Amino acid sequence: MDQATLLTGDSSGLAELAGRALDDVGDSIFAEIEGGLIENPDGVALCCPHQRPNELKEFFSGEEAGDETSPCLSLTYSQLHQAALTLAKGLQFHDIRPGCVILVLAPNSAEVGLLLWTCAVARLTFSAIDTSLLERNGSAVLADLEPSVVVVSGKDDDQRVVDELIEATSQHRQQWKPPKLRISLDTDHHRSGWVLFRRLAEDGACDPGQNGVEVLERGALESEARDRDDPHRIHSVMFTSGTSAGRPKGCPQTVRSTVHLLRSQAWLIEAGNKAGSRVLVQAHNSRAIAPALMLQTWRAGGTVLMPRVTVHTSFSLQDLIDGVSDSRATFVVVSPALVHALGQRIAVQSRPSITLHSVRGVQLGGDVVMRGHLAKCAALFPHAKVCINHGMSEGGGFFTWPFFDAPSPAQVPCFGELCPIGVVAPGARIRIWDPVCQNVARRGVLGELHVCCASIITQYLGGLNGDAFYHDTLGRRWLVTGDQAMIDQSGLVFIVGRSKDTIRRAGITIVTVAIESCVEKYANTQACVVLAAHPTADKQLFAIVRAFNGRTEQQIVEYVATALGASHALGGVVSLRQLGLAEFPVNATHKIIKRELEDAVGQHLSRATATV
Question: Does domain 73-253 match CATH 3.40.50.980?
Fold first, then answer.
């Protein structure tokens, strides 16, 4: 890819770049995924290895019925679309109209994929959330979201929690309207007031108007979804983790912003052979990447491989191995921590039982990526095109990867050992902001990453964190991403970490990834650097390593000081074993949770001080 064709206004030396204009963006989600249906009607659209082949049989009739001899639940595009039309009519039977919100609280399953396709056909709003966040902030989330439908996995406890939250919200929010429909995915058990998912298939087969409401037939549903959707309608509301704001923030994505994202990121699935792609969705459906990746795959006519992922098993190593070895995935998403874990698993094998040769495309991201991560990823997936990509719940499609044709990861230009995130994408504008001088920074200078793109939400649900958005003098709307980044002289963008994790020492901004990379290269081990409280001194930088691999703590400390200077000096090095940990703690996207490591190091230092 020619960087020059993507960059405009780049001669001033300022760290602000705009990609070329994106081709015309449509105004229908269904029109985007209908491309897969038209191109590949008999191809597999959705495969769930953990589900029986007949679990959705109520939604089919005649020749659309699935093959019960199949080893698992597998739906062609024609079958998925037929089931979605039946489900859409069943929802209409219960007066669920365009614009209504469906809130999903369940593990990944074919039912979740079916709901997402149905939302496109019936012009409904898809939302999903981590049940643990619902338990902590349930009333606030329900009040802001106002779902018309709530879907749970079927456990009595899940239904009870939702019932109690609805009751509490109704009592404290007088104008709030409780959900019209509560759906259980369980085939056998449901509390009073709940409807079994399969019952909606029966309701969808009823005569139009039988329940006193208007029900659109197949042709009308498709026509309305394709030609008359509202570009400003909210297509989805996905939630952030809530770690920075104290509560999860809802991100309302419009139809137009979602279509922009799908079109600007089309190159991702094309790297995995487009219609031949078998895309592994390892993320739980409450993470924004999950529905985005599913829609992107369907747009290309590929297959969504969906293992039974819960909130606590999102991006699990075993799902990755099973998805590639057993389901022959051709496209996967991994984080640096997952790459380390996969490499370690393969290294301790007694025989080469893990086969990764089916993979043709890999997206590496979710955390800062170093040269070593990229090289290891390329070595693990020898037949794949590996790219680094960046996305947020608030939007995406800000960057493209220009190095698919690089002969090796060593040919990718880095900032020290830090890999670039790519170049600015068509339809996007980015700038690096100097928060001290309150202006756009110069090239090569670290600052806050701000993005301007049609894929970005206009505000958070309920108006939270309004200061994350602003308009410039030309009326363009910007998002303050919370990332620290730099643009080099050639237009490559480097993200060095989150602004809230920035460490300053003696007036110098410390880039912890530089220390981590230095330690990993020297000790041949995974490392994470945190600023930990010392019981008898000021906070100090500590490196946590998976293992010392023959190096000593003193050797590592001296090596870092020599390589990076006194400003980056470590106060010490500890192993996971010394902290009483078997693995690095990671979140739902397999990103290391530094806060937990800071606490663990603090406790370790306190114990060590107490024994002196």
Answer: yes
pLDDT in tens, 330-372: 999 999 989 988 998 888 775 566 789 899 999 999 888 988 8
What is the C-alpha to C-alpha distance for residues 601 and 607, in angstroms, rounded to an integer? 10
CATH of domain 502-610: 3.30.300.30
CA angle 230, 231, 234 (to 5 degrees): 85
User: Which among 34-38, 348-352, 534-538 has the top mean pLDDT?
Assistant: 34-38
The residues that bridge with 469 in the sheet, in sequence order, are 479
Q: What are phi and psi of 417, to 5 degrees?
A: -105, 0
How many Å apart are CA 288 and CA 151, to the nearest integer?
A: 18
Residue 76 Cα distances to 41, 81, 264, 299, 301, angstroms: 7, 8, 26, 14, 10
Amino acid at 568: H
Q: Where are the alpha helices (DSSP H) in 265-335?
A: 266-270, 289-300, 317-325
SS3 for 64-121, per residue?
HCCCCCCCCEEEEHHHHHHHHHHHHHHHHHCCCCCCCEEEEECCCCHHHHHHHHHHHH
Topology agreement, domain 3-21+315-499 and domain 502-610: no
Cβ-contact 496, 513 below 8 angstroms: yes
CB-CB neighbours of 8 under 10 Å = 14
In the chain, where the domains are located: 3-21+315-499, 73-253, 502-610
Q: What is the pLDDT of residues 190-204, one digit of tens each?
A: 788 899 999 999 888
Looking at the structure, give the CATH architecture of the domain made up of residues 3-21+315-499: 3-Layer(aba) Sandwich (3.40)
Residue whose C-alpha is closest to residue 427's, from 25, 27, 2: 25
pTM score of the predicted model: 0.88
3-state secondary structure 420-452: CCEEECCCEEEEEEECCCCEECECCCCEEEEEE
Contact (CB, 8 A) for 131 and 158: yes
